Automatic annotation (TrEMBL):
The keyword Transmembrane applies. The chain crosses the membrane at residues 21-40, 60-87, 108-135, 141-160, 181-204. It is found in: Membrane. This is CysZ protein.
Length: 226
């Protein structure tokens, strides 16, 4: 089931409605990453005062490499923040395709902020752990994939569930289906691990998790939002 959902979600990325959102997400993601890079570089050059020019150059190059590595870890929280801006637009399109008789509703802003804040806190904590394991061969890639599968699966599923359920019920629904959500998150994490292609993560994650939520809702009683 999950493979079929993932293939359908990936194919939907290239439909005209999703392409329009893609251009906006690419622009916003690039803007956020450039802003972070520029801020870090400006801070470094402003405070870095070394007695030798060659030493300054060397430290700057090392810092640039560290920033590039940091971007690999930053793409997860950044892509999720970007997804928050366009998730409802994407979700409505998917719902109209797969179940037009039962469209979701835009959740309250407070609920969306709560989900995003919890995700950001978890992403920061877990990616710091993953970063510390970066130099451990044979473990780093696996940890990176597992961490992001959990984070992205949880985050995108909760956004999808919020369109149909009260925020008080979302955590219970997620816990009841945590393994399916985690396995679906592996597809999203695998995409997020591919440079440049990972810019498609918000679109793929939204489409996949809306589809998964729809399947789970059809198979079990999920309380509707009051």
């Amino acid at each position: 089931m999950l493979l079929s959902l993932a293939l359908d979600a990936f194919a939907e990325i290239f439909t005209p409605p999703f392409r329009r959102v893609l251009y906006k997400t690419l622009a916003l993601t690039a803007l956020l990453l450039v802003f972070v890079f520029a801020a870090a570089e400006t801070t470094l050059t402003h405070f870095l005062v070394l007695p030798y020019h060659w030493l300054t150059t060397g430290v700057t190059l090392i810092a640039a490499l560290a920033l590039l590595i940091g971007f690999a870890f930053a793409i997860t929280p950044v892509s999720f923040v970007v997804a928050g801006f366009f998730f409802d637009e994407l979700a409505a399109k998917v719902e109209a395709d797969i179940d037009p008789k039962h469209p979701g509703a835009t959740p309250l802003l407070g609920a969306q902020i709560r989900v995003t804040a919890v995700f950001a806190a978890l992403a920061l904590a877990l990616n710091i752990v993953a970063l510390l394991l970066l130099l451990v061969p044979g473990v780093n890639a696996v940890i990176f994939l597992i961490v992001n599968a959990y984070l992205l699966g949880r985050g995108y599923f909760e956004l999808a569930a919020l369109r149909y359920s009260r925020i008080e019920d979302v955590a219970r629904i997620r816990r009841a289906n945590e393994w399916q959500i985690f396995l679906a998150g592996l597809f999203i994490a695998a995409l997020a691990a591919v440079p440049l292609v990972n810019l498609l993560t918000p679109l793929f994650g939204a489409s996949l998790m809306v589809r998964l939520h729809n399947k789970l809702a059809a198979a079990s009683a999920i309380p509707a939002k009051s």
